[in-house]
User: Which sequence fits this backbone?
């Protein structure tokens, strides 16, 4: 598997206002992003590592997990990370109709609004699902899908040493949005090793920007 799949190259051709696959390429910032949390053990550990190295990131949380672990979500917001919407219950979007997909996203927005007082949040769909009707919804609602261009494959490797070795071997470029997960221990362990090296090299780590409609 290549780390820049063709699907992402095609998505990269769509306007930034509908699908975002990377951040600004000029500068030193990389955009770490974490899906599927918050997790009661792994997310706080990851937040500690990010804080220790002055790194900001984006957390695409599952609404029902946010309801279960509100203190962790508050920490994500207080520590300057982007709080993103990864649907309410993380169902397989390919098996839902568009109305049900939108209902999942809007229900998660309502849960997250209690934490950051925004009625809308950046969205990353479960499994990165994209369809034409869903893109139509994004365009009509002036929302954009927060995709990624660098897949850490942390969910495939299952151990931090392999994830960290791969990230060292194929380092993310300026502007890359890096996909990782915080429902397991890999991301925190790999980043505890990599962030000191990357910070030393002058890299910075930023949260994604809100959409104009995310008021
Ligand atoms: Zn997910």
Assistant:
């Amino acid at each position: 598997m290549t780390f820049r799949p063709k699907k992402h190259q095609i998505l990269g051709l769509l306007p930034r206002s509908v699908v975002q696959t990377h951040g600004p390429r000029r500068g030193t910032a990389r955009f770490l992003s974490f899906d599927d949390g918050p997790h009661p053990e792994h997310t706080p550990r990851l937040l500690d590592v990010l804080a220790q190295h002055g790194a900001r990131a984006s957390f695409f949380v599952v609404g029902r997990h946010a309801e279960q672990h509100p203190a962790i979500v508050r920490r994500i917001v207080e520590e300057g990370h982007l709080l993103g919407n990864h649907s309410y219950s993380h169902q397989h979007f390919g098996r839902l109709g568009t109305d049900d997909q939108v209902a999942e996203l809007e229900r998660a927005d309502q849960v997250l609004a209690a934490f950051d007082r925004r009625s809308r949040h950046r969205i990353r769909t479960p499994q990165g699902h994209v369809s034409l009707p869903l893109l139509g919804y994004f365009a009509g609602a002036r929302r954009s899908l927060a995709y990624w261009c660098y897949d850490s494959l942390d969910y495939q490797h299952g151990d931090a040493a392999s994830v960290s070795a791969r990230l060292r071997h194929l380092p993310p470029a300026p502007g890359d949005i890096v996909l990782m997960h915080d429902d397991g221990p890999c991301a925190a362990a790999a980043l505890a090793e990599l962030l000191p090296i990357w910070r030393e090299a002058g890299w910075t780590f930023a949260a994604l920007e809100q959409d104009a409609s995310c008021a």
In short: The longest helix spans residues 98-116. The chain has a mean pLDDT of 93. Residues 35-36, 86, 90, 126 surround zinc ion (CB under 6 Å). The chain is about 40% helix and 15% strand.
